Amino acid sequence: MKKSLALLLVLALSISVFAGCGKKAVETAGGGDLPTIGVTIYKYDDNFMSFVRRAIEKNAEGSATLVLNDSQNDQAKQNEQVDLMISKGVSVLAINLVDPQAAATIISKAKDANLPLVFFNKEPSATDMASYDKCWYVGTTSAESGIIQGELIVEAWKANPEWDKNGDGILQYVLLKGEPGHPDAEARTTFAVSTVTDAGIKVEELELQTGMWDTVKAKELMDTWLSKHGDAIEFVIANNDGMALGAVSSLQAEGYFTNDKFMPVVGVDAIPDVLTKIEEGTMIGTVLNDAANQGKATVDLSRNVGQGKDPLEGTSWILDETKAVRVPYVAVTMENIEMAKKSYE
Ligand code: GAL
Ligand code: CA
User: Fold this and answer.
1) What is the per-residue pLDDT across 109-151, written as a single tens digit (0 to 9) for each?
2) Pocket of ligand 1 (CB under 6 A)
3) pTM confidence score
4) Which among 29, 76, 316, 332 would be 20 to 30 A from 340, CA to CA?
5) Cβ-based neighbour number of residue 136 at 10 Å
């Protein structure tokens, strides 16, 4: 035990010495003249982002050296990580912000170092994006996920009149919101509901609170809501799959999905655990948030601009007028589950 601890210490020391040698050390780690992409993930402990990270690693293999940082949901920590990467001489920054409002801080650091910058997953404001010509964004059109989720709800609600348990013609829902201020959370919350009301379905919001994208937090909320409202809840709308999973486990503990007790639950992301739930019948659908392609586009653009090339060179991505690559969302139900599975392989 002691021996292996000592060995670990020696290893950790030699790694930090290696990391301390600056530019050379970082670059040689990937071999030769490959561009070095300095990446931050807002926190490793995020279900969906772990798939984006995996896609980034896969796509960088053999074509770029990665310096990966877990910002542990702490913007101050992320700022320090960026400073350190700049001082070590990375060729480009690929940043998943902790706080979308912090884009300006990161942009000014990149500007000072004359470094190109690719944000991904958490979209900076249009003003921030326009403030630096060497910055780009890879993500989605946030509203699209809300609209698609709303369409899933409309279709399922219309096909299952018995889900209106109290027969009042109104869809009583609870909504698990992602991180407040996050463009995805705001847009999904707004558009999921407006799509349902636009289709002529009356709704009543019984509860809406943030579960911060998190399974455990969402389960706690759902536990409270179930004990407060019980069967008055007719639909669970979750801004992401992580939280939908929390709701499902709370519902299962209350005896749902056995005998005739049912609750429709929808999410966003299409992570593998949720695809399993759809197959089991404990979730009715989700919206594919294409981690594989978002990771690929992040690496493609970063690699190019890190070598002073046009961001799109050799790729088939398209930039919109805000310098953003927006990967489309896709509705996922039992009907096309195989497609979703492939995307998360
Ligand atoms: C969203 C995703 C969430 C969470 C969030 C982090 O796009 O749907 O599950 O990962 O990004 O910023
Ligand atoms: Ca009702």
Assistant:
1) 999 999 999 999 999 999 999 999 999 999 999 999 999 999 9
2) 42, 46, 48-49, 121-122, 182, 184, 213, 240, 242, 268-269, 289
3) 0.90
4) 316
5) 27
